[in-house]
């Protein structure tokens, strides 16, 4: 099951050129671009591992593609995303976020049902991958 | 890179008008600007013109589908201090951007300190950070030979060199590296690092300025700041240039700039002390002979001065 999170996730996977174009758009808007990775694809897992610092003074998106490829070398079997942070007053938040790398096999999520007081049901989802310990997921 | 690099066969033009693309890309302006704003340096200008022609032709060939590889654009600028290497590098970055060989055309100037780390594992991230900043533009490494220190085999400079070489080769589309430094030391650096030599296509040598050229430079520098020499000062300046050349720490145009800065200082001091009444614009912007003649250069140079200082500090020590 393909993970659909962030921008462009219903499109075919982005090529390096696509990544460059999108990152350049962010840079031209003055947003700081950064690269992050994780092996826990739960949608509420917002804190991914940072791959280096956000790139504040890079003028060209080639550096972003370079870092994405460096990250792929080490974490090629995990999810990698590119973020663009807008620091202007009033925004101060992520303006762009898209996945640029995903594991070859994505087992997807299961629904967990919990029976609580009065035969009420609680539902949650759990990634099949996350049942394995960290580092052994993909 | 620009979109015209990979035109499909059907869209390739039959002919390319080199003169038109020379005009359109704005290369002509840059070359004209280079000619106007920089005195002397005839061989450098010639080389840059040749390089520009080569790149224009290469671009045309790519549009016609005759060439696909990005040519090697890394360069080395060798020459004595103050011969205009950094200034020309700035122009070069602009030129490359107009020709579409780099996307942004900014110049990132670094020295050994910016590339080499202080402890194990510090160098690689530091060098990569600098390289990333320079992507889409030109990385100018001043005094590049300091990267290589043969006397210390555990020097981290070697690590920076390896990363540089790797990126120079693999990311040729993304950045252009210009190494700069004094001629003889750069030669030794290239001998010790054959990897660099083979990856650098353009070696440009910057000759020293002649006395006349340095004098012209001094006049231009003054004019830019709305100052002028009076006739006697002009003679003094010409004399200063020829005397200064034979003294230690001579750095071509940079020495001239420093001399002018000091002359302005003395001029301000003189006006302050001498002028009884109001001063007019002409007085405020005229450098006279007296402002120049006080210079140590006319009294035998900096060496005599350092002896003075040594004596003074010895006296202070005795007290």
Write structural notes for this entry.
The complex is a heterodimer of chains A (138) and B (319). Chain A is of the alpha+beta class. Chain A has two helices and six strands, in the order αββαββββ. In chain A, a hairpin with a 6-residue loop joins strand 3 (79-86) and strand 4. Chain A is globular. Chain B is 56% helix and 9% strand. Chain B has helices at residues 18-24, 27-37, 42-63, 85-98, 112-115, 123-134, 157-170, 183-192, 194-199, 211-224, 231-245, 252-274, 281-284, 289-293, 302-318, and strands at residues 75-79, 107-110, 138-142, 176-181, 202-206, 228-229, 286-287. The longest helix of chain B has 23 residues, at 252-274. By secondary structure, chain B is an alpha/beta fold. Chain B has 15 helices and seven strands. Chain B is globular and about 80 Å long. The chains are: A alpha+beta (138), B alpha/beta (319). At the A-B interface, helix 2 of A face helix 6 of B.
Low-confidence stretches of chain B: none
Overall 3D shape of chain A: globular
Rg for CA atoms of chain B: 24 Å
Strand order of the largest sheet of chain A: 2-1-3-4
Order of helices and strands of chain A: HEEHEEEE
Note the total helix count of chain B: 15
The largest sheet of chain B has its strands arranged as 2-3-4-1-5
| Secondary structure: number of strands of chain A | 6
In total, how many beta strands of chain B?
A: 7
Report, as a whole number of angstroms, the end-to-end distance of chain A. Answer: 14 Å
The radius of gyration computed from the alpha-carbon positions of chain A, rounded to a whole number of angstroms, is: 17 Å
Please trace the helix and strand order of chain B, writing H or E for each element: HHHEHEHHEHEHHEHEHHHEHH
């Amino acid at each position: 099951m393909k993970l659909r999170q962030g921008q462009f996730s219903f499109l075919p996977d982005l090529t390096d050129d696509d990544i460059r174009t999108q990152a350049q758009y962010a840079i031209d808007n003055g947003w700081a671009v950064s690269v992050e990775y994780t092996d826990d694809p739960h949608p509420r897992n917002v804190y991914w591992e940072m791959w280096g610092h956000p790139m504040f003074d890079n003028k060209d998106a080639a550096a972003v593609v370079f870092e994405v490829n460096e990250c792929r070398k080490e974490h090629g079997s995990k999810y990698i995303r590119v973020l663009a942070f807008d620091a202007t007053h009033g925004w101060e938040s992520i303006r762009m976020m898209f996945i640029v790398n995903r594991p070859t096999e994505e087992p997807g999520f299961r629904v967990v049902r919990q029976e609580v007081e009065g035969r009420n049901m609680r539902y949650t989802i759990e990634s099949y991958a996350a049942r394995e310990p960290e580092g052994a997921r993909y | 890179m620009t979109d015209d690099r990979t035109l499909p066969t059907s869209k390739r033009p039959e002919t390319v008008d080199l003169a038109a693309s020379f005009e359109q890309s704005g290369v002509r302006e840059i070359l004209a600007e280079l000619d106007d704003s920089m005195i002397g340096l005839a061989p450098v200008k010639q080389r840059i013109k040749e390089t520009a022609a080569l790149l224009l032709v290469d671009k045309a060939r790519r549009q016609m589908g005759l060439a696909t590889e990005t040519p090697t654009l890394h360069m080395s600028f060798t020459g004595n201090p103050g011969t205009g290497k950094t200034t020309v590098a700035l122009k070069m970055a602009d030129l490359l951007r107009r020709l579409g060989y780099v996307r942004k055309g900014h110049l990132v100037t670094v020295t050994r300190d910016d590339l080499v780390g202080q402890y194990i594992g510090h160098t690689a991230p530091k060098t990569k950070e600098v390289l990333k900043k320079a992507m889409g533009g030109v990385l100018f490494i001043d005094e590049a030979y300091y990267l290589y220190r043969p006397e210390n085999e555990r020097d981290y400079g070697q690590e920076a060199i390896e990363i540089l070489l790797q990126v120079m080769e693999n990311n040729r589309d993304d950045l252009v590296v210009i190494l700069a430094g004094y001629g003889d030391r750069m030669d030794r650096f290239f001998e010790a690092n054959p990897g660099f030599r083979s990856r650098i296509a353009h070696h440009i040598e910057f000759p020293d300025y002649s006395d006349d050229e340095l004098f012209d430079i001094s006049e231009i520098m003054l004019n830019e700041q709305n100052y002028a020499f009076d006739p006697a000062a002009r003679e003094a300046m010409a004399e200063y240039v020829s005397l200064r050349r034979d003294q230690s720490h001579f750095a071509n145009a940079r020495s001239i700039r420093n001399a002018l800065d000091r002359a302005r200082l003395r001029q301000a001091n003189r006006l302050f002390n001498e002028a009884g009444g109001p001063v007019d614009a002409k007085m405020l912007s005229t450098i006279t002979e007296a402002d120049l003649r006080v210079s140590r250069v006319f009294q035998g140079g900096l060496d005599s001065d350092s002896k003075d200082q040594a004596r003074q500090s010895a006296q202070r020590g005795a007290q």
